[in-house]
Amino acid sequence: MDILHTRCRVEKSFREACIIALSETWLEDSVPDEEVSLDNFTIIRADRTRDSGKERGGGVCVYINNRWCNNIKIHNRVCTPDIEMLTLLLRPYYLPREFPTVVISCVYIPPGINTNTAAELAAHYVHTMLSKYPDAPVLIMGDFNSCNLDCVLPSFEQYVDVPTRREKVLDLCYGNINNAYTAHVQPPIGAADHNIVFLLLQYKQLLKRDKPATYSITQWSEDTTVQLQGSLACTDWSIFDGDLDIKTDAVVTCTHTEKGSRKLYRANGLYLQHTSRHTLLHR
Which PANTHER family does this entry report, sorted A to Z (predicted)? Predict the structure, then answer.
């Protein structure tokens, strides 16, 4: 734990991580949060309980960077003989418009269990979240050992493609956003036997990906209103001999002549002026 403390203080990649997810923490109720806390991070734990059928080991926890998000809701804590799981709902300070919230699940699946049962349980909780938040990005990560979710979550992408323990890929991360992350590894911390997996964001928001369509609209201003009043006042209406259609055409002609126009950009359902679009693209 001291090594993790130090790396969070001196290394930018740790200090500015949005979340740090740990599996097989071996934490118990007798260990207070203060002993395992990190500066500027909020810790959420799901320690192993007797429901797992085991007394030691296991457990998961998630550290959430306070500079990234402080709107945190615990959706569930699950502890069974086949899977240990912590699911959180997060609403970061900045979130692309297309996402209402972010769902994070940290799991630990012990070795030597029924992998089909574990996969079905994980998929059940994921589908529950998707039914409530169909547009939300859902990430499920952790130590899966010999289990995988490819069959039960076929629409999800698995982002980790590098060995995480010797030559095996045991630590996985599934998500419902294609090409959202790339994975890089670093050596284990302390006496741990699993590599550290860094997930680097590759996702680009829709506003930056979609090419905007340009629209021209007409708009009244104070100057054009005065000009229209002058045009109508200077018109010799007696020449129309009471023909309403001709008078109407004359008024429409004056209106089209005097109204100004401007360009708007439409992207992802939003109509933006050029200055607003430029500001958003350079955030």
Answer: ENDO_EXONUCLEASE_PHOSPHATASE DOMAIN-CONTAINING PROTEIN, REVERSE TRANSCRIPTASE DOMAIN-CONTAINING PROTEIN
